[in-house]
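Quick one: structure for this chain?
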Amino acid sequence: MEKEQSGTPLGDILLRIGVELGEAARSVEDLHALVGATVKANGANETFLREAQTIDILQQHLSALGGFISELSESLPESWRVESGDAVSKVTLSKLRQRLAQIRVDESQDQHPAGDCHMF
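Got it. Here's what it folds into:
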């Protein structure tokens, strides 16, 4: 009889992190339109444009990390497992925490618990 392993496969966790980084990269990429609209409407000086390049660098950085971690996740044996509950509890963004923990959201729960930032 085979002993059931506890914990979550490390490869699954890394894959979820890679996907989240890819989503963050796409969100940052969307900021290009904001910068473009600002430049078009108001013009921009050289310093502004140089600083705005940070958005592109950040997007590339997140995308590269996401791809690296996702690819790495595929090479890990299923037997490599970790207890991720304590780590997930440190994530203060509830939607991200739920995705990392693969928790199904109960629609009756508060949609904006403490720790989430909703400015618009």
